[in-house]
Amino acid sequence: MATILKNKVPQRKCIGCNESKPKKELIRIVKTPEGEMLVDDTGRANGRGAYICNNPECLQKAIKSKGLNRAFKMNVDTDVLIKLSEEMAKLGKR
Ligand SMILES: [Zn+2]
Hints:
Layout: E1 11-13, E2 20-22, E3 26-31, E4 37-40, E5 48-53, H1 56-64, H2 67-72, H3 78-92
Antiparallel strand pairs: 1-2, 3-4, 3-5
């Protein structure tokens, strides 16, 4: 049996529950240089990013605790939050 030494999975902190989780279990939200907020499906979009669990509760927490605003150093509009939660819901259904 081969010993697997490659267990250094990159971890990121969810801006909702503040738990560190493997990057691939989290959703990346990105603010593009144009100022657009989107769910980064590919994980490679340009811009400032924040990570969140694929869980509507974490998004709610991030909104309540202003974690999103802190992560992006701006006030995130309600419209944008609705859009993000819809995009997260879509990802969850895959
Ligand atoms: Zn979370």
